[in-house]
């Protein structure tokens, strides 16, 4: 395996406001309902009525276009990138995404960054094609990582620790893993402190084999495109939610069997020792997939023939995406709470620009984009079809969700207010 010698600082980014489509609304809704019912019956920590697109929708149910406090999710994500030290950004999305992006940048400016748009290919709505579209526009050098992230992370504005991470220099993929213990260290003693509810199916043991972490898959990837076989990212991304990342590596390695022999000692050590070590730390623990960090790094790096590393971060905004109606509510509740305290700029460094866009530009966009013409009624309809037992908005368009004033909302506000303090408000 050739060593990586990359530039440490990342200056280029692909942000995806694109997502796959189901063949019919019925199929998409059935999947969303079945998943939520399964989680409820299993007593899961996080319940998710997924926001899914379909090819027969009159209004494209694209989650990046959903409004949080009257502002599109994608604008929060763009604001995060504008706050960063990135220099070049490629946006991949639909025609409506392009409409919103152009109006947003016309209102708030580009902060000196080069921002280009490429239209999603409706025939190939998959990650590999999305990355290919972005890569062609960025033309990265052979010794630089590019940040890839989906555009549904509205409060992930502290990107500098990713862009300047020292391990970027010696690794071609860095997986920023979501550790429950790092993000919410007091969740056992104070359940309300865990203000982002997720299900953690994976386990990792650090070098100290008593240091057991519950993990959720990463949401962003620094990648060196020039060092990768084209299928790697698709395998990694498609397998990340079901714990099959080792199988993904083996699929790649079958093209070059010597890689399996290099990885075999670590896979054997894992097979004979990991489960018993977990049970020693936490008897009765059940999980989908787990590994020691040492075995994971070495086996995956050998299977994929590139140096890969992971890091366990402590920032809840990395895991707080908008995949489901419950996720949307988390942010709608948070921003309404902030409005009663000191405003959006108290919890988001681009809050002033976001609010300016809402007041000056959204009125005209509401006339142009069907989803926005009566967003409260649109959301209430979705809640009904997905068999939710309440409406998030009343007949006057006021946000009235029963989850609007939970202790977790106040906890989230305090966390983001502290995080935002000291950052430049644009």
Would you mind describing this structure in some detail?
This protein is of the alpha/beta class. It has 16 helices and 14 strands. Helix 1 links the parallel strand 2 and strand 3. Helix 7 runs antiparallel to helix 8, helix 8 runs parallel beside helix 10 and helix 9 runs antiparallel to helix 10. The termini are far apart. The relative contact order is 0.16. The model has no long low-confidence stretch (mean pLDDT 90).
Q: Count of DSSP helices?
A: 16
How many strand elements? 14
Structure classification: alpha/beta
Largest sheet: 5 strands, mixed
Oligomer: single chain
Quote the distance from N terminus to C terminus.
44 Å
Topology as H/E string? EEHEEEHEHEHEHEHEEEHHHEHEHHHHHH
* Helix content bin: 40-55%
Low-confidence stretches: none
Sum up the overall morphology in one term. Answer: globular
Provide the number of structural domains: 2
CA radius of gyration is 21 Å
């Amino acid at each position: 395996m050739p060593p990586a010698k990359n530039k440490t600082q990342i200056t280029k980014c692909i942000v995806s406001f694109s997502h796959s489509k189901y063949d019919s609304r019925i199929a998409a809704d059935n999947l969303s309902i079945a998943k939520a019912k399964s989680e409820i019956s299993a007593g899961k920590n996080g319940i998710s009525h997924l926001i899914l697109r379909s090819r027969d929708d009159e209004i494209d149910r694209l989650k990046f276009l959903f409004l949080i406090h009257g502002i599109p999710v994608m604008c929060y994500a763009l604001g995060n990138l504008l706050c960063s030290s990135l220099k070049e950004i490629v946006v991949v999305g639909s025609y409506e995404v392009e409409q919103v992006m152009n109006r947003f940048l016309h209102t708030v400016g580009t902060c000196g960054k080069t921002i280009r748009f490429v239209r999603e290919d409706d025939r190939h709505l998959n990650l590999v094609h999305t990355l290919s579209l972005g890569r062609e526009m960025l033309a990265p050098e052979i010794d630089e990582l590019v940040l890839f992230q989906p555009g549904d992370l509205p409060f992930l504005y502290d990107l500098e620790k990713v862009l300047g991470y020292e391990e970027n220099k010696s690794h071609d993929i860095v997986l920023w893993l979501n550790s429950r213990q790092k993000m919410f260290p007091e969740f056992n003693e104070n359940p309300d402190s865990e203000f982002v509810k997720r299900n953690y199916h994976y386990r990792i043991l650090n070098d100290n084999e008593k240091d057991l972490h519950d993990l959720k898959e990463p949401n962003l990837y620094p990648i060196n495109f020039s060092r990768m076989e084209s299928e790697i990212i698709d395998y990694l991304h498609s397998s990340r939610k079901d714990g099959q990342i080792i199988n993904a590596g083996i699929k790649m390695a079958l093209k070059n069997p010597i890689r399996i022999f290099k990885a075999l000692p670590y896979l054997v050590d894992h097979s004979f020792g990991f489960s018993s070590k977990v049970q020693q730390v936490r008897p009765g623990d059940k999980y989908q997939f787990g590994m020691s960090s040492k075995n994971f790094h070495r086996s995956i790096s050998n299977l994929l023939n590139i140096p890969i590393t992971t890091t366990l971060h402590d920032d809840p905004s990395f895991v707080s995406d908008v995949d489901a109606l419950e996720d949307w509510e988390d942010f709608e509740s948070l921003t309404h709470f902030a409005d009663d305290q000191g405003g959006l700029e108290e919890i988001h460094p681009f809050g002033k620009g976001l609010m300016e866009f809402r007041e000056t530009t959204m009125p005209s966009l509401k006339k142009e984009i069907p989803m926005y013409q009566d967003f409260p009624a649109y959301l209430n309809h979705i809640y009904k079809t997905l068999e939710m037992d309440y409406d998030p908005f009343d007949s006057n368009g006021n946000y009235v969700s029963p989850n609007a004033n939970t202790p977790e909302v106040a906890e989230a506000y305090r966390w983001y207010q502290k995080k935002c303090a000291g950052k430049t408000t644009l």
